[in-house]
Amino acid sequence: MIDFETAVSEVLRLTYMLPTHAVHLANSRGYVLAEDIIARESIPLFDSTSVDGYAVRADDIITALSSSPVHLMVQGAVQAGDSRVLHLKRNHAIKIFTGAQLPLDADAVVMKEYVSEENGKAAFHEPIRMGENVRKRGAEFSNGAIVFSAGTLITPPVMGMLSVLGYPKVQVYRKPKVALVITGNELRPPGSRLKRGQIRDVNSLSLTSMLRMLAIEPTLVVSVRDLKSAVSSAIRAALKKSDVVISTGGVSVGEYDFVRDVFAELRVKTIFWRIALKPGKPNYFGIKGRKLVFGLPGNPVSALVSFELLVRPALLKLQGLKTENQVSFRARLTRDLRKKAGRLEFIRAVFTKNSGSELLVTPTPGQDSHIMSSLARANCLMLFPKDAEFLPKGSVVEIHVLPWQQW
Fold first, then answer.
1. Is the separation of the CB atoms in 80 and 97 below 8 Å?
2. Of 212, 361, 169, 207, which Cα lies nearest the Cα of 295?
3. Which of 91-95, 142-146, 326-330, 349-353 is predicted with the least confidence, judged by mean pLDDT?
4. Looking at the structure, do residues 58 and 193 belong to the same domain, yes or no?
5. 80 lies in which domain range?
6. Residue 325 pLDDT > 70, yes or no?
7. How many angstroms separate the Cα of 18 from the Cα of each of 15, 34, 222, 336, 398?
8. How confident is the model at residue 323 (pLDDT cuts 50, 70, 90)?
9. Are residues 114 and 182 in the same domain?
10. Looking at the structure, do residues 28 and 12 belong to the same domain, yes or no?
11. DSSP 112
């Protein structure tokens, strides 16, 4: 049995980034950039106005006062998308609308709320600073600047910026192909009528959902009975169809736990089996070539927690994303907690803020590994150190924010 930290380190050490390919920008959300994105022109491309108003030369209205306004002839108007090159005459103003390019020789824009216009003349009641309400060419990025580095997750605003930069396609890391093999005689589909000894299959749905949160659609989801031949056939098919195989159940030492034996027969190299972790002690990890093979516990709480702590970091690295994006905080424990020393425990919990904006964390009811409601109610996992036996109320502890709470 190995430490949790060692297990994570081994998983990431043996995880390789997948090959790259080009995708259309419209289909790029959720992928990770495999190239630096360079500004191929100045951003903004031209001087423009950030408000509706009047483009002026600042020194033409430098003497303006509320009691003695300066009047300028209105030379014309320009709106967003107008490609004309307009030259602002001395002692004139041009009406301008948000996003429109600034006329030549104009150096400021007075908001329309502060200007009165009558008979083709605009009255200005106070001076303005040069550059006010102007978006300067190249103020955001100069031509040739690195806007995004390789390894950046493409989110909706990143897609928007790529569109600003004029990239119709981008080079990204390929999404991993992931197969799920769910084992257990007792499992029945959601919504089915149960007989004695049967339970509904939680892992197929919840693990598929976890994959979709990473914009990964599983290539195979199969549920099999605890028959060695059935397990072998399913895992053999999963290995052919995927970069990552995730099984649940059948990895302990029971008479009907065939998964590890099947892995061995299919020449999967065992890296570790069993972790000093709760929930999730009977975790398996192996490799076949560059394929990653995870054998998660069958218990749904343990399977989901194990996926979050062990599988998700590997999936992020496979598709080129840095794994430091897991959100952790420090919070103050609201009640005493006890456990046996020897295993790191991730306590299902809820964090909140008190009136002083201090983070507080409270374990959810029922921490046994079969109690799914404790995870369904949780918004974080609280770390109870391996060698600690007692955490008094008021202790400052580390919490790991669950990814579905970040949506």
1. yes
2. 207
3. 326-330
4. no
5. 48-135
6. no
7. 9, 10, 24, 45, 32
8. low
9. no
10. no
11. G
